[in-house]
Design goal:
Elements: E1 5-9, H1 13-24, E2 30-35, H2 47-51, H3 65-70, E3 73-77, E4 81-85, E5 90-93, E6 98-100, E7 103-106, E8 110-112, H4 120-123, H5 132-143, E9 147-151, H6 155-164, E10 170-175, H7 187-200, E11 203-207, E12 211-217, E13 220-225, E14 230-233, E15 235-238, E16 242-244, E17 260-261, E18 273-275, E19 280-283, E20 290-291, H8 296-310, E21 323-328, E22 331-337, E23 348-354, E24 359-366, E25 369-376, H9 382-391, H10 399-403, H11 408-418
Bound molecules: flavin-adenine dinucleotide.
Flavin-adenine dinucleotide binds near residues 11, 14, 80, 296 and 324.
């Protein structure tokens, strides 16, 4: 009997979680996997640790080739999907290979957004960080560099800046908004992190600045800002967010908004096609909106649910929770759920600042329900708070968390809320 053919596009968090979920259910389907990278699965999250020289490249890989053998996956690595005909149940790769399937999972993730408006030749020389190959390129470029101009002031831009800056290598971050991390945290938290940025490394941040033009100058570049100021750089880099890898998707067959639209079972609008991870756009559990939420945990959870559903189970994904938990310039920063409030959105904020210790905490509440948290330096109870946000609960700690001593701040928040 011919077994069912499952094809998985992608080989990262969502794709591997799906394989695990299918095989965990004893599925004997024939699984094929396609990746445009020539290597086994690795974590993009760890690439900044590699850039900083804290871990070797080998530590990025979380599957070796034995994994694919053990899970009976046939691999098409180092070749990109260029076309998908969902009606014909067929995918075409850039080496001319055609793969037919019965069920398809699109888990092609996202790529760094490209800077627009530059001379095309110069634009091609801008370095981004998404893949292990990108990390190798940045590391190499930084070796002999004296001045890197980084376009952007988000998490990835700052992590790259922090990883490569040295006493003899300055990084200038050109940031359009008035704060760093404008997509992740509020202005107070951003200002506190910025203090660490300026104190701890050879990094300068220019706020409210945009690049107007970049031309060649000597062996490097002249970067002209819209203020009229000019910077000399020998390496250009940028971090402007990500966009889903969906070029091969025919929008007449599969509905796409910013990402591939999925229902609670990660199914796309085309019956035997699922999507999971950074490429998928589904319901945000906290905001209730259908939007892109790109993070590792979501990608894994979505991949697990998609794999289970492709294996015949009906497993609902409860919705995404935005979260970024990272260390910037030696300080832990966590941004969970909704972290930016707007006039008239009905959210209440409660903040706690201990300037001496550099601790900042901010909760956002809708009524008594916690919908977001921003934590700086003291993130010990991040799991408790994430649990409360994901479950749509009040922020008071569970008995278990209280027993662990994580009640200090929640007590303060309660006092601030109730006035007692
Ligand atoms: C520097 C950095 C730091 C990060 N830090 C964090 C963090 O602290 N916490 C967190 O939660 N998240 C973090 N992330 C985000 C996290 O890495 C992603 O959310 C996660 O990797 C998404 O997994 P995914 O499986 O959806 O896709 P991806 O990891 O993007 O993988 C996509 C896969 O699809 C393949 N592919 C793409 N296009 C094609 C194509 N056309 N044909 C064939 N194959 C293709 C790729 O080769 C890859 O195997 C970070 C990302 C970066 C870059």
């Amino acid at each position: 009997m011919i077994s069912e053919r499952i094809l998985i596009l992608g080989n990262s968090a969502a794709a591997i979680a799906a394989v695990n979920a299918i095989r965990a259910r004893g599925g004997k389907q024939a699984i094929a996997m396609v990746s445009n990278e020539p290597c086994t699965a690795y974590s993009p999250v760890l690439t900044t640790y590699y850039l900083r020289g804290e871990i070797p490249e080998s530590a990025l890989y979380f599957c070796d080739i034995g994994y694919y053998r053990e899970h009976d996956v046939s691999c098409h690595f180092g070749t990109a999907v260029i076309a998908l005909d969902a009606a014909a149940q067929r995918v075409t790769l850039d080496d001319g290979t055609r793969l037919d399937y019965d069920k398809l999972l699109i888990a092609t993730g996202a790529s760094a957004k490209r800077v627009t408006g530059l001379d095309p030749e110069i634009a091609a020389e801008v370095r981004y960080l998404r893949t292990v190959a990108d990390a190798r390129r940045i590391r190499e470029a930084a070796l002999g560099a004296k001045h890197i101009v980084m376009m952007g002031g988000g998490l990835v831009s700052l992590q790259v800046a922090g990883a490569v800056a040295r006493p003899d290598l300055k990084v200038t971050c050109v940031v359009a908004s008035r704060q760093i991390l404008s997509q992740n945290v509020d202005a107070t938290c951003a200002a506190l992190v910025c203090g660490h940025v300026e104190r701890s490394a050879n990094i300068e941040v220019l706020f409210g600045a945009s690049v107007a033009e970049i031309t060649r100058s000597g062996g490097g570049y002249r970067v002209c800002l819209d203020s009229g100021a000019e910077l000399q750089a020998d390496v250009l880099a940028a971090g402007k967010g990500v966009s889903p890898n969906i070029e091969f998707v025919d929008r007449a067959q599969i509905a796409v908004d910013q990402g591939i639209l999925v229902d609670e079972h990660l199914r796309t609008t085309f019956g035997n096609v699922w999507a999971a991870g950074d490429v998928a756009q589904g319901r945000n559990r906290v905001s209730g909106e259908v939007e892109l939420v790109a993070n590792w945990i979501d990608a894994c959870e979505q991949g697990t649910a998609a794999g289970a559903n492709m294996a015949g189970e009906a497993l609902a994904f409860p919705g995404s929770v935005a979260e970024n938990i990272t260390t910037l310039f030696g300080v832990q920063v966590a941004a969970l759920g909704i972290t930016r409030s707007r006039e008239g959105d009905g959210l209440r904020e409660v903040t706690y600042l201990d300037e001496a210790r550099g601790v900042y905490r901010r909760l956002l509440l809708r009524g008594e329900v916690m919908v977001g948290a921003t934590l700086l330096r003291d993130v010990a109870d991040v799991g408790v708070l994430r649990g409360a946000i994901a479950a749509g609960r009040e922020p008071w700690p569970s008995a278990k968390a209280a027993a662990k001593g994580h009640v200090r701040y929640t007590g303060l928040f309660k006092a601030a809320l109730t006035g007692r």
